[in-house]
Amino acid sequence: MGQVTPEEKAEIQALFERKNGLAELAKIVSADNNDLYEKLVKDMGETGAKFQQWWDSKAQQYGWESHPKGNWEINFQNGEITLVVKEA
């Protein structure tokens, strides 16, 4: 369906890894530690927004097709983008 450059692949891979790392951290940080919790929530929001902005930007740049029940996925080995449609 699509292809991104090695630089673009590195950008989304870094965001993907950060997003997943923050999600794992959220499982062990309690709201009792207010400062750390607030920082984590803020970072998760910012990272999630950057992640979505990357996909939106590349979809527009490359003209990828979309689907209401679909999402794009990247193969981190080769930078290939595919549209995955989830059946209801």
What does the model show?
With 88 residues, this protein is an alpha+beta fold. It has one domain. The chain is built from 2 helices and 3 strands. It has helices at 6-26, 34-62; strands spanning 2-3, 70-74, 80-85. Strands 1-3-2 form a 3-stranded antiparallel beta sheet, with no helix packed on it. The longest helix has 29 residues, at 34-62. The protein is elongated and about 45 Å long.
The whole-angstrom Rg is: 15 Å
Main sheet makeup: 3 strands, antiparallel
Which runs of at least 5 residues are low in confidence (pLDDT < 50)? none
Spatial separation of the terminal alpha carbons: 22 Å
What class would the helix/strand composition place it in? Answer: alpha+beta
The dominant shape is elongated
Strand sequence of the main sheet, in spatial order?
Answer: 1-3-2
Q: What is the H-and-E element order? A: EHHEE
Mean pLDDT: 94
Helical coverage, percent range: 55-70%
Q: How many β strands by DSSP?
A: 3
Output the number of helix runs: 2
Q: What percentage of amino acids are in beta strands?
A: 5-15%
Number of domains: 1
